[in-house]
Give the backbone structure.
Amino acid sequence: MLFVVSAADHWTLKDGARHPSGYWGEELATPHKIFSGAGWEITLATPGGKAPTLDRLSMNWTAGSFSKRHEIADYLLSIKPQLDHPRSLDTVNPDDYDLVFYPGGHGPMEDLAYDEVSGALLTRRLESGRPLALLCHAPAASLAAKNLDGSWPFRGYRMTGLSNTEERLNTFGWKAKWFLEDRLREEGADYVKGAIPLLPFVVVDRNLYTGQNPASSEQLAKRLVADLG
């Protein structure tokens, strides 16, 4: 399977401030551990082959219990050689993989949402009918996808991603240039979200799997393992 991870180390807010960011620890570690436990071979790729940056907020007290954060930190350390030496995204062929998976964090809002290489990969993958999964902020990467006629390939797909309510729970969320939920709706997605913010919520439409928030990491990964065998 292919893990596509943001290479951004910040998120530019509407006031021009560069908020330190990257990938969200739980969203990478938990699925990676579940997929590895299922015996899947994982290739990790980023734009330009740059080592991804861990969002330090994903390791603070607001991100879960101490024991959970400690477990995530230990697992990320165990795969450090892979994190330190990812493939460059422009060198991978999505057709070589049984699953393409994008974890979130604010990083994708900064780079993957505008990355033409990632956009082309997502367009090709969605069209192939083979499994594609986007978690939390990672559906932002879909905004860079374009059909040959300029239309959005994900239009009409039922999908989820971090909601406006959840984004505003961040103390800096009100400074966002745009909200993921709004953009997905504007582009024509059939956006849905769970009744209660921050709880696990997973949506499957055809070959597209999406999870709403960090808490959805485990549920999304286990659903993929169950469906792909």
The domain at 2-228 is CATH 3.40.50.880 (Rossmann fold). The chain has a mean pLDDT of 97. Residues 25-37 form the longest helix (13 residues).
